[in-house]
Amino acid sequence: FVPAVTDMLIFFKAIPIGVQVLFAIPWIIGILALSLPIFLVLMWIGGNASRWERFHYVVMTTATFALVWQANFWHLVLR
Q1: Which of 2, 27, 39, 43 would you label with 62, given CA atoms 20 to 30 Å apart?
Q2: pTM of the shown model
Q3: DSSP string, 7-70
Q4: Cα–Cα distance, 63 to 25 (Å, whole number)
Q5: Per residue of the chain (79 residues), what is the pLDDT tens digit?
Q6: Distances in Å between the alpha carbon of 67 and those of 13, 55, 74?
């Protein structure tokens, strides 16, 4: 993916709008991920979820933060 973007930069002299939209996806996920711990605490305090549902939500919250960390690590988040 990175060589393709580099080739586009050389050819277009700017990042095309479609690629900019793709690079915005990690930002959107990161912003939405900030709400996950809040809802996780509310789920645990409310007590209306089964043990499996709580475990599933913890795993999904962890995976979402791992995805954002990986996107940042591989420089897929434009600054």
Answers
A1: 2
A2: 0.71
A3: HHHHHHSS--HHHHHHHHHHHHHHHHHTTHHHHHHHHHHH--S-HHHHHHHHHHHHHHHHHHHH
A4: 16
A5: 677 777 766 766 677 788 788 888 888 998 999 999 999 999 999 888 999 999 999 999 999 999 999 988 988 876 6
A6: 30, 18, 11
